[in-house]
Amino acid sequence: MSADQPASWVSRHRGRLGLAGAALGAAAFVLGLAAQAPASLLAEHLPIDSGTYRLSGVVHNGELLVDGGEMSWRMRPLATLASARVDAAWRFDAPDAQVSGRGSIANGIRLTDVSGRVGSDFLMRLSPEFAAGCAFSADVSASRLVITDDSLDVDGELRTTPGGCAERTLPSLLGIAHSENGEAVVRLWQDGSERTAPPLATARIARNGAARIDLTADGAELLTGRRPTGPSSIEILR
Fold first, then answer.
1. With 50 as the cut, is the pLDDT of residue 175 above it?
2. With 60 as the cut, is the pLDDT of residue 131 above it?
3. Where are the domains positioned within the chain?
4. Helix (H) or strand (E) holding 77
5. Burial grade of 121 (CB within 10 A; 0-12, 13-18, 19 or more)
6. pTM
7. Where does residue 172 rank: exposed (0-12), middle (13-18), buried (19+ CB within 10 A)?
8. How far apart are CA 221 and CA 228, in angstroms?
């Protein structure tokens, strides 16, 4: 390739490059204006009941207050331009939870690269009967959590620290989460045990928050302090 070839190529395509530059500049300008819009404009894209949260700030940098915690985010402009959806780095802080990751909004919420630590109060808030009175914390991670109007899609895990429930000791536990038929399914084993063994508990969580937790006799004794004669279930209706 001769030294003047790059210059010739630029000369031949000057018009197209100019149009591409103008389009990129216009898109960046529109994105800049949109980023300064009130964060409340995002409400129509959130698959959450409007009475359960409050939005503040602007689209670029805002906060969502929900369930005793605060989720804050800062938009990632280049990723937003590339994907045509609001893409942001986010963090959730509550007295018993600190979790962060990346996320985007377009026909639902998509969270990726999720990691952090949550406490037992946060995990057990769904049901006072399930592991009531337990104290422990859990490291959580998820490569994907997608919430749409009618389904949940998740791929992740949690690992608890040893703790206690009332007067009994609670060992370290491992939970693996995935999706089946639009529901989130979490299976729980004692950490270090073979995953080929039946899980101590299997929780199936629907998009509306309803859940069914199936427990083996060992799982029920460990988590509730009561040993049934066989498998048992806990249903949480929403």
1. yes
2. no
3. 1-35, 108-238
4. helix 77-83
5. middle
6. 0.72
7. middle
8. 8
